[in-house]
Specification:
single chain; 248 residues; mainly alpha; rod-shaped
Length: 248
Amino acid sequence: MIKFFRKIRQNLLLDGKIGKYLKYAIGEIILVVLGILIALQLNNLNDERKTENLRQVYYKQLLQDFKNDKAYIEKTSLAIDSNMVKIRAFKEIYNQPNLPIIEIVSATGNLDWRLYNVQFKTNTIHTLQNTGDIKLIPPTIREQLIRLDKYKEETEEASAYNNGEAGKAGATAANRYGTPEFAYKNIQNQPKLRERVFEEKNLIELLINFERCQHMKAKSEKGSLIRFEKILSDMEEIEILINKELKL
């Protein structure tokens, strides 16, 4: 094609048709420019298509993350609710007047001592921020995603801190008194050892550590439940915006 155009120009020059040559040259330049502009436009359209496809992928990943987060919150909330029932039952026993200390200590065996550190496993928002692809998301959705991610991190940190304090109190009791199996089973046939372990001053100290442990554990879990409500609400708002973008 280039040789063809070159031959036309040469023939025009040889025939002395300068005016036609100039017009042809200008026309050829215009055609080249138009070709470049069309190529750029096609390239831009292709880039926009790729960008939109990537954005759609992120939207779908975010919606899947929200689904997983909701399932996690539901499962964790059920475990916390079950624990709260046990705490209320213990307090009913604890509030009875003039109970022997050993009975109160024995009742702690019905409590749930597992610590539920909140840990969200989803990471699409982190990926968006770490790769810089967060800029692909419209500002309104982007800002809400960033705020949601920060709040989830704060929820994890608060849970870890309060459970850490609960764990310290539990560890203090465990280091001093061993396991429940030791206290309530293994030493039953050792009267002197049992008498030493169950001295009133020791039981009082044990109860104080148990109380501290359960207090911080309950504080952690109640705080998590409150924060879960906001996280769920924020995710619902973002889902509505994303579904509009996806035209669902």
